[in-house]
Fold this protein.
Amino acid sequence: MKAIEESGEGLNQISGERIWSEIKKILDQPFNFEFVDIIYRLKLDSHVGFPAEGFTEDKRNLYRQVSAISVYAQPMTKICVFLDSVDQLELMDNRLKWSKNEFRQASFLIGQKNLILKNEPLFHLKDENEKIEFYKKLQLRLKNAVLNEKIASKGEYEWILQLSILNNENKDIIDIIKSNYYYTV
């Protein structure tokens, strides 16, 4: 481990696209929390594009929960656990060179997460029905935005599910959003 830490600067020579390709595969694996923890313990975070202050104790706990609570959590959702702002998102994208859709998804997740924190700081205390209604309304707003832009992409509807995961919702809420109850285009 010491040798890896000492040669971490060598990662700067590897293209961001290649690093993201490998990280994305790892984030889909059961041991992804341990991998991210090692990146930060070995101080490799800046070399692979992760935010320097990205793995605080609160974020460690949230990341562990997001990874464990849902098999539906996508790599971009897990990455968004580390990010507090669009500025951090852009810095990470500059290094990792995400696809346009990955960047749009992460922008949506960070933007919505921050709006909820700003406008509804007690959102996490709402009951299950209120939360489901919130996600349902957000889905309708997103659907209208997609239709207005004439972008027919079912992937954007998946973002609502990913936001509920990022918000660390319970399994029941996630399952309702995932089901065809109202999670349809």
In short: Residues 2-178 form a domain with the cca-adding enzyme, domain 2 fold (CATH 1.10.3090.10).
